[in-house]
């Protein structure tokens, strides 16, 4: 099915018949209140995802496809408590002739290559000698950079698509370049490196060949713990290569930037930000993530005729989406 004829998730309206291909993830076979089984699965394309249910499902329905498979789905949409969902009557693996992989790629390879070039340019602006050594160590690590440019920045909340990590980190680094010169007491070099490293371990926390999920290490450790280990290993490598020591206090400050960037204990931060750079990194990271996630909520809202979205319990509010100015 070509992109010209498909209805993307973001275009689906209430009570609309559906017969097309999606990417399946997070499938579960669950009992309802009466004990009857139903299949729940997230179906996605490059525009977003829709929660899908198949009533009166069997174990064979569950085993008919795997997470990460392209599936052909028949059913109809419905609005439920303000959210769009899809009620499927049939789900099967898609045939190759039914599939256009371009329908599932949010960022094209040319976009990713352009962002990678810009990321390299910014890191090469760093003046600090030890941080320059560290930046070069990561940039020359082809295996790491390949994963860094393919990884998503998260599962659902923001930049949850291949290339999303690179897009988020680059956006954050551009914010650092805009904000740091306004505050001479900040170290722009530390902030740039913190922006680069803060989510770098998403490369190993998540898997992302097709669908997105947590690796075992991601579930057991999380990207902040993995990120500190990743940083230690890279410092060890560059010291071994050039024979020059790496400043211990600087290394501690970089680790603090990684483990404090969530900002609050309730958001999973092991430490509160305690340096100026850590405080600013948290605020800028939160800004970029919030703009991306709120924009996605607005784009996915099924209330297309209203300037207001439905109420989102996860953020405790509706969102206003004014008409676009000419």
From TrEMBL:
Top-rank lineage group of the source organism: Bacteria
UniProt entry tagged with the keyword Hydrolase: yes
Gene Ontology MF: a single term: hydrolase activity
Domain (HD/PDEase) ranges: 161-299
This enzyme's EC code(s): 3.1.-.-
UniProt keyword list: Hydrolase
Annotated InterPro entries: HD/PDEase_dom, HD_domain, NA-bd_OB-fold, NA-bd_OB_tRNA, YhaM_exoribonuc/phosphodiest
Example of a GO biological process term: rRNA 3'-end processing
Annotated signal sequence range: none
Matching Gene3D superfamilies: Hypothetical protein af1432, Nucleic acid-binding proteins
Protein name listed in UniProt: 3'-5' exoribonuclease YhaM
Organism (species): Bythopirellula goksoeyrii
